Amino acid sequence: MYVAVGSENPVKRVAVERTIDGRVEAVGVDSGVSEQPRGRRETVRGAENRARASLSATDAAFGVGIEGGVESREHPAGLWLIMWAAVTDGESVHFGAGPSIRLPEAVADRVRAGEELGPVLDDRLGREAVSEQEGAVGIYTDGRVTRTDALADAVAGAFGPFFTDGTA
Question: In this structure, which CATH number among 3.90.950.10, 3.40.1190.10, 1.10.575.10, 3.40.50.1110 belongs to the domain 2-102+146-163?
Answer without folding.
Answer: 3.90.950.10
